Amino acid sequence: MDAIELLKSHHLKKTAPRVAIINALIAGHMPQSEAEIKSVIGALYDRITFYRSVHSLLEVGLIHKIVVDNLLVKYALNDCANGHTHEVDHAHFYCKQCNAVICLSHIKTPSCDLPDGYSESECDVLVKGYCNSCHQRN
Length: 138
Ligand SMILES: [Zn+2]
Ligand SMILES: [Zn+2]
Ligand SMILES: [Zn+2]
Description:
By secondary structure, this protein is of the alpha+beta class. The chain is built from 5 helices and 6 strands; from the N terminus they run H-H-E-H-H-E-E-E-E-E-H. About 20% of the residues are buried.
């Protein structure tokens, strides 16, 4: 699916910044940060529009976000073609050397046995280390 089809299937209006963000994520092949998306979309970038667009894409479940720390947040397309689940059900990997983040789609987040009266809204699993290309240099 391309950006326009994705927006349509999630009942979101087609706007230039939304299309540009989705295209940047498709082209990036892995989760992208705001700075990385900005460098791809160029003149269409504007901080407020970016946050508004990302918010609407998150809300309809077209993308998910990976919070590495308070300085680094990455965004990834959801696997809508595959059963159309919008919950983040998988772990992520963060490379401490090159700052790459990848979706570990085959590693499911655990279901947690919480104390009585507690309820879970999300569960983030982030594995940190070195990716295959950085590993060789360490
Ligand atoms: Zn979807
Ligand atoms: Zn790396
Ligand atoms: Zn992911």
